[in-house]
Every structure is written in structure tokens, then in C-alpha cells.
Design goal:
With 199 residues, this protein is mainly α. It has 3 domains: 3-62; 71-127, no CATH class; 135-199. It contains 5 helices and 2 strands. It has helices at 7-33, 38-59, 67-70, 101-129, 136-195; strands at residues 84-86, 93-95. The chain has a two-stranded antiparallel sheet with strand order 1-2. Helix 1 (7-33) runs antiparallel to helix 2 (38-59). The longest helix is centred in the C-terminal third of the chain and has 60 residues, at 136-195. The radius of gyration is 52 Å and the shape is rod-shaped. It starts with 6 loop residues before the first helix and ends with a helix.
Length: 199
């Protein structure tokens, strides 16, 4: 591992930058207030700051992310990249499918299409959110009242049908009774006719 990547070096670099900035600020304060030794303080501070900038220029910038450890050659557009992934069972590094700039661009294009589709879906949901449902409660109450009245009417109709059936049954019994009475009356007429003296 390079010394520049160690935590100790990073701490030293931050300490050097902080102390250098403090010396420059103190030199500027001395100069603004016209205190004795202001020119010397400002010269020392600016000299330290110049050394810090020279130091930072020599060590070079650090990468924000260490993607090159996972994809060696990532900084080269035309490089065939092979992601290094750990096998969870054996703990070994598995060389995956090689990638290059065109494959990465096509994958990013697919992701962009998916994001656009999601954006349209979210717009539709927002439009649904803006629909005014304030009168819906009253409409539901009206429909409930309608169904209640309809159920009552159906119950009344069922009661009427039951009453009609009872009436029909009673008419049937009355018809049978009348038929019986007619038979009895006919028998009486025949009996009376047979008692009449014959002339």
C-alpha cells in the first residue's frame, strides 16, 4: 500500500493545511491591525501557503471513489472491464462478464428509460391526487339511501306476494266449499223432486 493512501499521511496533510491557513490568517490580522511584526507574519504565512499548494500539486488528487478496485481499467473508455465479485459461498473472486464503454452506456440508457417511465407513473399518481373527491361522500350516502329504499320495497313486494298466495289459497278453499255446497244443493233438489206427487 502506498504511503500516500495511509491514514497517517491523510492526517498529516489535513494538519499541514489547517496550520498553514491559520498562519496566513494570523499574518493578515497582524497586517490589518498594524501590529509589530505584521510583515514578517504575513510573509511566513504566505510562504507556508505556497509550500502547501506545491505539496498538494505534487501528491496529486485522490479519487472520490475506488471504483478501479472493482473495475480495473475504469478510467480507460475502451478498456474491457471485468467486475470483481466475491463468491459468497467460497469467498473467491469471480471474474464476471467483461464490460466496456458501449455496454455501460447501453445499460445507463436502459436505466434512463426506466426512470422516465417511473416519472410518467408518478405524474399520473399526482394527477389522481389532485382529483376532487369532496362530493363523493354525499353520493355514497345517496346511493345507500337508494339501496335501503329498494330493499324495503322488495320486502314489501315479498309480503304482498305472500298475502296474495294466502288469498289464493283461501279462494281455493272457498271454491271447494262452494262446489261441496252445490253438490249438497243439487242432491236436495233431486230429493225434493222425488217427493213431489206425480200427477
Amino acid at each position: 500500500m502506498s504511503f500516500v493512501k495511509t491514514k497517517g499521511f491523510k492526517y498529516f496533510k489535513n494538519l499541514l493545511i489547517g496550520v498553514g491557513a491559520a498562519v496566513v490568517l494570523m499574518g493578515a490580522l497582524f497586517k490589518l491591525e498594524s501590529w509589530p511584526g505584521a510583515s514578517l507574519m504575513l510573509t511566513i504565512g504566505l510562504g507556508v501557503e505556497a509550500l502547501i499548494f506545491l505539496f498538494l500539486g505534487l501528491i496529486g488528487p485522490e479519487p472520490d471513489y475506488y471504483w478501479s478496485k472493482l473495475y480495473p481499467g475504469l478510467d480507460d473508455y475502451h478498456a474491457n472491464l471485468t467486475p470483481l465479485t466475491a463468491d459468497p459461498i467460497q469467498g473467491k473472486i469471480d471474474m464476471g462478464t467483461p464490460l466496456h464503454g458501449d455496454v455501460i452506456e447501453s445499460q445507463l440508457g436502459g436505466m434512463l428509460t426506466e426512470l422516465q417511465t417511473m416519472s410518467k407513473s408518478l405524474s399520473s399518481l399526482k394527477a389522481l391526487q389532485e382529483v376532487d373527491f369532496s362530493g363523493t361522500n354525499e353520493q355514497i350516502k345517496t346511493m345507500n339511501n337508494f339501496y335501503t329504499k329498494l330493499n324495503e320495497a322488495m320486502a314489501d313486494l315479498n309480503d304482498s306476494i305472500a298475502d296474495t298466495k294466502v288469498y289464493k289459497d283461501q279462494l281455493g278453499v272457498l271454491n271447494k266449499n262452494l262446489s261441496g255446497l252445490n253438490g249438497v244443493y243439487g242432491g236436495m233438489l233431486n230429493a225434493i223432486a222425488s217427493f213431489r206427487p206425480q200427477q
